[in-house]
């Protein structure tokens, strides 16, 4: 436990995670853990990139969200004026180091996540698993160890430590005609489900008369429009490059199911408790980035052999196989898993 430096004043904490969308969502249990662990009034601030602000703005437990576009110099002077007692660095890069250095002039104590980088390198290069199943959320919560056990504190507050998103993105779940959400894109090709796979999935859903929402950024617009054109009689809506994050969260929250690769959509789906088919490619859940406390009907599909040579990379930016890892998850497996989820969760 910790007390504010001035009796009666709130304990002020700055949490830092600049990107990406999935990583920002994965930090949300830390916000609640800080309130559960620190004594008295706690004022939690959050620093992120402006592009990802919708994952945390309006989230219960956050006093203020600070954003940057390019550099931390945009906010450092104002952050110093706040008088933070602690900074919880969940990014641990050069940018966050600049912020911590600036805040030390006001005697701010900093806690920095152990990213387990060496363990991840050993897993990718040699197949030596030193992570032992530790999830990144557990790494984030372990950063608060000087205050005690975060999971124990959350449990004492009757909080499982699940992910969270602002607002009520899941409204409308009672609608039996709910649509299927397909997250087309990914940050790297090694995480991207092939267009040929999507065509088979969409063809199957269209034959069932199901409504389909296609999600992604501008890079996925061409694929999305190709799918819409290929099935002119189907109920398909493309939101690629059009929907803001908040609208995307709403689409996921109202969906009967979500099909996605290893992307931010996976973590949004877990936060919103939407059943998912998660397709793994060049990354692996062994790296600790799988869905955290997802809907119990969620299915994760990994590429067919050889398992020993995965993950190919930490970020999904490289593949060591002639046939890319995402291509080795047959579309028939995706369809079978999706049909199973829908048979068990929809009328």
Strand order of the largest sheet: 8-7-6-9-10-11
Number of domains: 2
Q: How many strand elements?
A: 11
CATH topology of the largest domain: Rossmann fold
Along the chain, the helix and strand elements come as EHHEEHEHEHHHEHEHEHEHEEH
Beta-strand proportion: 5-15%
What gross morphology would you assign? globular
Structural class: alpha/beta
Oligomeric status of the shown chains? single chain
Described by strand count, sense and barrel closure, the largest sheet is: 6 strands, parallel
Helix content: 25-40%
Arithmetic mean of pLDDT: 93
**Whole-angstrom Rg:** 21 Å
Tell me what the CATH architecture of the largest domain is.
Answer: 3-Layer(aba) Sandwich
Total helices: the number is 12
CATH superfamily of the largest domain: Glycogen Phosphorylase B
The CATH class of the largest domain is identified as Alpha Beta
Spatial separation of the terminal alpha carbons: 48 Å
Topology:
Blueprint: E1 11-16, H1 21-26, H2 28-37, E2 42-49, E3 64-68, H3 76-82, E4 86-89, H4 94-103, E5 109-112, H5 117-126, H6 136-142, H7 150-156, E6 180-183, H8 195-207, E7 212-215, H9 221-230, E8 236-238, H10 245-254, E9 257-261, H11 264-271, E10 276-279, E11 299-301, H12 331-345
Parallel strand pairs: 1-2, 1-4, 2-3, 4-5, 6-7, 6-9, 7-8, 9-10, 10-11
Written overview of the protein:
This protein is an alpha/beta fold and 347 residues long. The protein folds into two domains: 11-156, Glycogen Phosphorylase B (Rossmann fold, 3-Layer(aba) Sandwich); 180-345, 3-Layer(aba) Sandwich (Rossmann fold), CATH 3.40.50.2000. 33% of the residues lie in helices and 14% in strands. It has helices spanning 21-26, 28-37, 76-82, 94-103, 117-126, 136-142, 150-156, 195-207, 221-230, 245-254, 264-271, 331-345, and strands at 11-16, 42-49, 64-68, 86-89, 109-112, 180-183, 212-215, 236-238, 257-261, 276-279, 299-301. β4 (86-89), α4 (94-103) and β5 form a beta-alpha-beta unit. α3 crosses α4 (94-103) and α8 packs parallel to α12 (331-345). It is globular, with a radius of gyration of 21 Å. The N and C termini lie far apart (48 Å). The mean pLDDT is 93.
């Amino acid at each position: 436990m910790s007390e504010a430096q001035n009796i009666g004043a709130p304990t002020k904490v700055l949490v830092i995670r600049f990107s990406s969308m999935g990583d920002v969502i994965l930090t949300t249990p830390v916000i609640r853990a800080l309130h559960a662990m620190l004594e008295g009034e706690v004022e939690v601030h959050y620093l992120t990139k402006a592009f990802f602000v919708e994952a945390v703005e309006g989230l219960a437990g956050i006093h203020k969200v600070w954003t940057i576009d390019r550099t931390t110099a945009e906010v450092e002077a104002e952050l110093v004026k706040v008088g933070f007692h602690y900074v919880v660095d969940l990014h641990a890069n050069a940018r966050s180091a600049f912020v911590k250095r600036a805040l030390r002039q006001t005697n701010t104590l900093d806690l920095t996540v152990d990213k387990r980088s060496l363990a991840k390198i050993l897993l990718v290069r040699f197949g030596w698993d030193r992570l032992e199943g530790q999830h990144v959320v557990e790494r984030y919560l372990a950063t608060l160890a000087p205050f005690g056990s975060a999971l124990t504190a959350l449990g004492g507050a009757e909080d499982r430590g699940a992910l969270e998103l602002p607002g009520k993105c899941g409204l409308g779940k009672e609608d039996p005609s709910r649509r299927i959400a397909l997250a087309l894109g990914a940050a790297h090709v090694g995480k991207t489900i092939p267009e040929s796979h999507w065509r088979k999935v969409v063809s199957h859903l269209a034959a069932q008369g199901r409504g389909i929402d296609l999600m992604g950024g501008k890079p996925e617009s061409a694929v999305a429009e190709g799918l819409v054109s290929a099935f002119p009689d189907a109920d398909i809506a493309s939101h690629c490059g059009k929907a803001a994050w908040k609208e995307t969260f709403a689409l996921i929250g109202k969906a009967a199911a979500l099909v996605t690769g290893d992307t931010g959509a996976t973590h949004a789906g877990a936060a919103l408790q939407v059943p998912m088919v998660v397709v793994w490619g060049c990354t692996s859940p062994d790296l600790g980035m799988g869905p955290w406390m997802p809907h119990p009907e969620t299915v994760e599909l990994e590429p067919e052999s050889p398992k020993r040579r995965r993950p190919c990379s930490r970020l999904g930016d490289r593949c060591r196989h002639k046939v890319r890892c995402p291509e080795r998850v047959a579309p028939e497996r995706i369809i079978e898993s999706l049909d199973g989820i829908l048979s068990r969760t929809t009328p």
